[in-house]
Amino acid sequence: MIKEGWEAVIGMEVHAQLATSSKIFCGCAVETGGEPNSNTCPVCLGLPGALPVLNRRVIELGARAALALGLEIQETSVFSRKNYFYPDLPKGYQISQYDKPFSANGTLTIMTSERDDQGRAVEWKPMKIHIERMHLEEDAGKNVHEGLPDVDKYSYVDLNRAGTPLGEIVTAPDFRTSWQAYDYVNHVRSALRWIGASDADMEKGNLRCEANVSVRRVGETGFNNKSELKNLNSVRFMQKAIEFEIERQIDAHEKGEPVNQETRLWDEKNQCTRVMRSKEDAHDYRYFPEPDLQPLVVTSEFIESVRREMPELPDAMRDRFVTDYSLSFADASHLVSDKDLAFFYEAAAEASGNPRVTANFILSELQRELNNSGRSAADCPFPPGELASLIKTLDSGSINNNQAKEVLVEMFASGKSASDVITEKGFKQVSDETAIAKYVDEVIARNQDNVDAYRAGNEKLFGFFVGQVMKASEGKANPKVVNEILRSKLQSNDG
Ligand code: ZN
Ligand code: MN
Fold first, then answer.
1. pLDDT at residue 423 is higher than 90
2. Which of 235, 265, 297 delimits the end of a domain?
3. How many A from CA of 185 to the centre of ligand 2?
């Protein structure tokens, strides 16, 4: 929670590694875990005279990403040199894009919610995010330090990662809370995976995010100094770092202490942010157009061909779920937050013929089981058709809602079919009228006083009879049939 009278201003930068098999400007393989410097050539080593050649697949995957994030692909974009010196950057510059990015001006609707003390979502609401740009660039290599910090023995440079293609996605400073930023990154991650543009795995480093955070008094329109949070190894660390930073800055402003424009790191061990470098070290990158590459021209035919090859996008699927299946916007958004879950849902909804109840079962019961076991919908122990058959059985009235939930839990644990679990648990309801009529006759015979009272006009007693019949059948009688038979027998005087 942000202190009364203050608001946070947060912009996000996400670097996503595009899932190509070779690098952006040479033919070297993109792979992790190889011998250091084994996937290198004169181009990605930055040797004099080597010339970059743009990888077409980078443009296809970049176009997919841009379309999935609601960005407009620019007809002409220009690669530029971003000059700085660092040991993992052998050319002395990074080939990136500057004033003419690959795509720009995106609008993305995400679902977001604040969280309570237990980290549970309070209320999901749609939020429109403006994405300023997504440009394409090459990644740098990696410096590897041996020994403890302060007593380094050696530092090494591994250039296997140098030249790996990245899309850098930059938002406007639209976020006001750490949870909005958290929900945004999760949305981007799932959208990129959905369309196969990136593996978007933060642990493996193929999705990296930075947050620009400043605070101001409510009502102010200008911006105060911001800090740039880096080294955020998970979305949760990022959220905690932003939260810490908001409090730290408000505190400093209130005490009249300076808030410097600086880069800070998240220190998970001490649960705080620390200065990495201050404004004095700020780079002037001296961007200029890369003379060894032509401007990139993307035709509308190319964009159309990429669009045709793409699966249905999550936003389109969400809107379709709302229209075709009468789901709420929030429920549909949660279902499409994960591709496997969305496809599982659609298959189950079609097979069950009851999309609403199918959505309820997936979003409450199944999601809980998946979360508890750390699985995704793709490794659900039963197929969508089995969930559909459970829901059909529920709809037929032969099991009730609580029983259906219990069956689902058992199906998840054992992988057994719905009908096997229902039989094992003895849940099959008795709908046979002769059998139920027998129970009704017994109950009427045993409770003649109440029968007389009911017939004399005490209609409240009806519930009592239903209860007695259910008890006599050990809970297995179909309540609908019980009601019908009871009503007819109690009304006729020969009972
Ligand atoms: Zn290479
Ligand atoms: Mn970048």
1. no
2. 297
3. 16
